[in-house]
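Internal QA ticket QA-208
Title: Verify multi-chain structure generation after dependency bump
Assignee: T.L.

Test input:
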Amino acid sequence: MLESYIGLGSNLAQPVEQINQAINELAGLSHCRLQVASSLYVSRPMGPQDQDDFVNAVVQLSTALSAHDLLDQLQNLEKRHHRVRERHWGPRTLDLDILLYGDQIIQDERLCVPHTEMAKRSFVLYPLYEIAPELTIPGMGKLKELKENMDGGDLKKLDSNEYRAQQS
Ligand code: ROI
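Actual output:
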């Protein structure tokens, strides 16, 4: 088993529900154990602004799957959420990214781990820091320093009452 970190994002079809359901589904994957899930965070879209706010979270998943088998499982889950991808950087029902896979660096046609863009994204760094403040990201440095250099002003952490408000 090694520790992987998965980023979740949604801005379509009741995003809070999409993310909570996806966390449950990740917990049910075989050869995997969900260790911890961050809070949910709401932010303005990065990229085209003519779309709804995103809900994001990060989970720590222990896994005995290879990185590519894990990717297959995540892509199956995305399909089950009827992922639509109308345009590049456009709205989506569910996005699941392998952020980290142990301390491995993987670069091939299907996978880029650590996720290339993660150090530039507050909606990844803040939830990741919430669950794993001591992490060092291969090739990028200490998570604490990356997060301290990142403006999180746009991010809003949801508390459990607000989950319900967002649903209705
Ligand atoms: N913006 C935010 N805030 N959160 C995301 O998960 C997200 N995902 C994307 C793009 C469209 C780049 N913007 C995002 O894929």
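Spot checks passed. The chain has one domain: 2-167.
Status: verified.
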